[in-house]
Amino acid sequence: MRKYIVGFLVGLLAASAMPAYGAVQSLIGKKVGGELSISYNGEQIGKGIIVDGRSYLPVRDTANALGLNLNVGKEGVQLSVPVDPLDQIASKNEEINGLKSQIIILNNKRDVAVRERDQLKNALSQPNKVLETARIYLDSLGADDPRRVKATSSVDQLEKQEVEDKQRLADLESEIVEYDNQIAALEAEITELQK
């Protein structure tokens, strides 16, 4: 609720500052018609002035009372709402939780890749009995035997599968390394955010 009130007051100040800023030259030499007390939540924050029936607030006192940041420069007066440290902490925690969720997902993908890699390693470390049997069968067939074409095709297909399995194993090793790198980068990002 406080943010809305502060936002409204900043808007009000900005709207009233426009005529005041535009009327600065016409105020030079004008007579101050009176003073008025400025209070916020029942607390006196300063004195304003009345010129030509218009009231003007003391910007610094008003900004301080409302908890606004004030910057006076060549461009004029800039008022801004300060960032709430609790909002910053909540935002940081939300970002950290998002990164932790990404790490969980990557760890799950890594686990799947490790299981598949281990199964392939195990399968490739054992002699391929089917391929050995097919080669023996192929060698037992005569050169003009009609079954030789089909047996040759089977041996070629089994050898191709073995090559593909070895390539898949290499790909899985690369994937696991990439997952490890991504996880390490996310963990480093979390560590940096927690500082």
TrEMBL record:
Native organism: Paenibacillus oenotherae
Sections of the chain in a coiled coil: 155-189
Signal peptide residues on this chain, from the entry's feature table: 1-22
Protein name: Copper amine oxidase-like N-terminal domain-containing protein
Keywords linked to the UniProt accession: Coiled coil, Signal
